[in-house]
Amino acid sequence: MMEDEKYKNPILHTSQFVMCGNCFRADTYRGCDFGCKYCFANNRQGNFKTKDQVADIQLIKKWFHDAIIKGDTSNIKKEMLNHRVPLHLGGMADPFQTREWKYGATKELLKISSQYQYPINISTKTASLPEPYFEILNPQIHTFQISLIGITDEYVRRFETKTPTPAERINFVKQLKDRGFWVSIRIQPLIKISEALRLIGETDRFVDYYTVEHLKLPSDNTYMMRNLLPLLHDVPEKLIPKGREWEFCGATKESNIARIKNSTKVRIGCGDNDFHTLSDSLNCCGIDTMPEAFGNWMKYNSMYIKMTGDRSQWFPKNDCTGCFNSTCVVPGMKSVKDYTERYYRKLYGDDHQSSLFA
């Protein structure tokens, strides 16, 4: 199946399910025109702006109807829709990038969500929404993660070319809170700890959660390595090779997390895979702190198991291998449980659970 054909239905069960409870993703566009230099999605996919990169809303409507009304669970995505696993909107492409005002695909998906009272966690860098969107949005089934890497205009613009300013996004966070929405700030990538601390100092009076995840650079992406490394000239910590990526060393990440936690009483989620268990909740994005409608998030993952010792949670029974690259598929393995347990042993070394949360 060609990529464009796959994209007709942009609802994906992603390979992150092994460590993430917010792994059921929707993207109303493919690629993004916000122009963030650290973005994995654009540097892997290119800056897609053509009409055929817009979600097929009619097909999405059919999938919701078949899964929820007809009870169709014939594949893993329909099974998850049927179980009302929350969708993460904007994992790879901002749902409110400028193309939205032309095509309106996100607005149509939100209408479907409202029709079925289906929970959606929205990740975006936008700083405003027209009033008709708020007539559709509902704080009981819609939550927001506003992405912002710092508070200084010059610093943010170094890495982002077409996004709203920090002040504009912070004002949008306030507006969302005033309207009753659960809203977090996602500091991803965390590059300069001083910028992250200043941002938290300016915003922790009106946010529900912070997610932090440090910068990673794919070593096999020469474009990102060549264009991003010179921008880190005033960052005292150095990136080191780790597997297929370059990232900050563990001591730097642990120190930054500790400094952030000591700076605020707001709960913190740690998106770095090696520090998930330093999070203040059971999933690094805080989905377990969102409204009741989000209760069916994917708990059968290595982070949840490590922090609770609980392996009794629901997981989809259909073949999950479609979300992997062919090189990551293990012959003879098809289930979410098998791949999650395999990742758990790889990350933590054995089957021991610490029950870090009571």
Structure description:
The chain is of the alpha/beta class and 358 residues long. The chain is built from 14 helices and 11 strands. It has helices at 3-6, 40-45, 57-69, 76-82, 100-103, 105-116, 131-134, 153-159, 166-178, 193-203, 222-228, 250-263, 302-308, 336-348, and strands at 11-13, 24-26, 87-89, 120-124, 142-147, 183-190, 209-214, 216-218, 239-242, 245-248, 268-270. An 8-stranded mixed beta sheet has the order 1-2-3-4-5-6-7-11, covered by helices on one side. Helix 3 runs parallel beside helix 6 (105-116). It is globular and about 55 Å long. The chain starts with a helix and ends in a 10-residue tail after the last helix. Residues 1-6 and 43-51 have low confidence and may be disordered.
Mean pLDDT: 91
Looking at the structure, what is the overall shape?
Answer: globular
Overall number of strands:
11
Report the uncertain regions.
1-6, 43-51
Distance between the termini: 46 Å
Secondary structure elements and their pairing?
Layout: H1 3-6, E1 11-13, E2 24-26, H2 40-45, H3 57-69, H4 76-82, E3 87-89, H5 100-103, H6 105-116, E4 120-124, H7 131-134, E5 142-147, H8 153-159, H9 166-178, E6 183-190, H10 193-203, E7 209-214, E8 216-218, H11 222-228, E9 239-242, E10 245-248, H12 250-263, E11 268-270, H13 302-308, H14 336-348
Parallel strand pairs: 2-3, 3-4, 4-5, 5-6, 6-7, 7-11
Antiparallel strand pairs: 1-2, 8-10, 9-10
Helix pairs in contact: 3-4, 3-6, 10-12, 13-14
